[in-house]
Amino acid sequence: MSGRADGSDHSRRTSRKHGCCCPACLKLHKQYEVRKAQLKQEGRWQPFTDPAPVREHLERLRRETGFGPRAIADLTGVGYFTIVRVAGWHKHLRGPSKIHTWRAERILAFWPTHNQIPKRMLVSATGTHRRIQALMVKGWCLAWLSREMGTDRSVLSWTLKLPQVEARTAQRVRALYDRLWNQEPPQQTRQERRAVNMTRARARAAKWMPPLAWDDDSIDDPEAVPDRGARETRDQALTEDSDWLMAVEGFDLVQAAERLGVSHVYLAKARSRWAQKLSDEVTDAC
Question: Which CATH architecture has domain 48-112?
Answer without folding.
Answer: Orthogonal Bundle (1.10)
